[in-house]
Amino acid sequence: MTRIKFIKCERETVAQNRAFWAKVLVKIQGGFLAFETTYAYNRWKADPSALSITPTGDAVFIK
């Protein structure tokens, strides 16, 4: 499973500390999407609507 986490915070340094495993961080909706793989990032970039953010802060591909 591809790990993607949505992190609500204002400062990028905080996001990097909380998502140290992320290869790619994307600022979105007042937080950050932290992608574990560039594959997941590229998939999201190709179709952002395919990603759904759950109330727990997990981001899941729905398509």
Q: Brief description of this entry?
A:
With 63 residues, the chain is α+β, with helices and mostly antiparallel strands.
List keywords for this structure.
single chain, 63 residues, alpha+beta, two-stranded antiparallel sheet, 2 helices, 25% helix, globular
Describe this structure in words.
This protein is α+β, with helices and mostly antiparallel strands and 63 residues long. The protein has one domain. The protein has helices at residues 12-18, 38-46, and strands at 4-8, 24-28, 31-35, 51-53, 59-61. The protein has a three-stranded antiparallel β-sheet with strand order 1-3-2. Strands 4-5 form a two-stranded antiparallel ribbon. The longest helix is centred in the middle third of the chain and has 9 residues, at 38-46.
Task: Furnish the topology, listing elements before pairings.
Blueprint: E1 4-8, H1 12-18, E2 24-28, E3 31-35, H2 38-46, E4 51-53, E5 59-61
Antiparallel strand pairs: 1-3, 2-3, 4-5
Q: What is the count of helical runs?
A: 2
Number of domains: 1
Task: Report Rg.
Answer: 11 Å
Strand order of the largest sheet: 1-3-2
Tell me the number of strands.
5
